[in-house]
Design goal:
five-stranded mixed beta sheet, Protein Yojf, Chain: A, 258 residues, 41% strand, 6 helices
C-alpha cells in the first residue's frame, strides 16, 4: 500500500503517536503545532517559556521552531547535527536532540498539541535568484552598450563626499558621465541623489558633466525633475537582460537569518 503524501495524525498524546513520529524522522517532513516550552543547553543556555508555536523537522534533520510572528526561528538546528527522538514524559510530548560534535542538547516540550502533519514532499530543483543591485552594475559594466553605445567604463563604486557612484564613465565624445543604477522603479530620492553626484563632480571638474539614472521605469514626476535639472535617464528592464544566478538548495539557514 502506497504511503499518503500528506498525513494528518490525531493530535492526542499516545504511544502510537510517539512510534509514528519516530519512524517518520528522516523519511518525511514533520510539522507540529501547539503549546510548548524549549530549553537549549550548550555553550550558551536558552529557555523559552510556554507559548503557541510550530515545530518543523525536515528530512535532513534540520529543525525550525517558529512563533506566531517574525521570520526568524525561535529555536533551530542545522541539518544532520545529531539524532532526533520523540518521547512521552509527564503527559507531555517531548522532542529531544543532541548534537554529535558539541554535545549540545535541545528539548522541546509540548503541553498540548493542535495538529500533527507528516508530509512526503520532494524538491530537486536548484534555487534561482536574480542578482542584487551590485551584480546588475557589474553586468552593465560588461555590457555598457545597454546604457549607451561606445561607453567607456572608468570605475565602479567610486567614493565621493555625497556617496558612492555606481558607474563612472566617458561617452563617445570623452565627456564624463556619472551613472546611478536601480533595479526597482526610479523614485524622487534617486533623482535627488543623482543631482547631488552631478553637482559634486561639476564643482570638482569645473565643467558640465552628464548624469544618467538607470532603472526599469520612471514615474512622470521623476522624469520631470530629471529634465528640469538636465539629468538623463535610461529605462533598462533588468528582468529581460540580466541572467539569473543559481544557488545550491543546501544553503545554510545562516545565509538567510544570521
Amino acid at each position: 500500500m502506497s504511503q499518503k503524501k500528506t498525513e494528518f495524525l490525531e493530535p492526542v498524546l499516545s504511544n502510537d503517536l510517539i512510534v509514528t513520529l519516530n519512524a517518520a524522522i528522516g523519511e518525511r517532513m514533520l510539522i507540529l503545532a501547539g503549546s510548548c516550552t524549549a530549553f537549549f543547553d550548550g555553550r550558551i543556555k536558552s529557555t523559552l517559556e510556554l507559548g503557541e508555536r510550530i515545530l518543523i523537522i525536515k528530512k535532513d534533520l534540520s529543525i525550525l521552531m517558529h512563533g506566531v510572528s517574525g521570520v526568524k526561528p525561535l529555536n533551530w538546528q542545522k541539518p544532520n547535527q545529531g539524532p532526533i527522538s520523540f518521547l512521552k514524559e509527564k503527559n507531555e510530548l517531548v522532542m529531544y536532540t543532541k548534537r554529535k560534535k558539541t554535545e549540545e542538547e535541545l528539548w522541546i516540550r509540548f503541553r498540548s498539541i493542535d495538529f500533527v502533519i507528516l508530509w512526503s514532499g520532494s524538491d530537486f530543483s536548484s534555487l534561482e535568484i536574480y542578482g542584487d543591485e551590485s551584480d546588475l552594475v557589474q553586468y552593465l559594466v560588461k555590457h555598457p552598450s545597454i546604457i549607451e553605445k561606445d561607453l567607456q567604463i572608468l570605475s565602479t563604486e567610486y567614493p565621493t563626499d555625497v556617496g558612492f557612484v555606481d558607474i563612472k564613465a566617458l561617452d563617445s565624445k570623452k565627456r564624463l558621465i556619472i551613472i546611478e543604477v536601480k533595479k526597482r522603479n526610479a523614485t524622487p530620492s534617486d533623482a535627488f541623489q543623482l543631482k547631488r553626484y552631478k553637482d559634486y563632480f561639476e564643482n570638482i571638474e569645473n565643467k558640465k558633466i552628464r548624469a544618467i539614472l538607470v532603472a526599469p521605469s520612471f514615474p512622470d514626476k521623476v522624469k520631470k525633475y530629471l529634465e528640469i535639472n538636465n539629468l538623463e535617464f535610461q529605462e533598462v528592464d533588468w528582468k529581460n537582460i540580466f541572467p539569473t544566478i543559481s544557488r545550491e538548495k543546501n544553503m545554510k539557514i545562516d545565509d538567510f537569518f544570521f
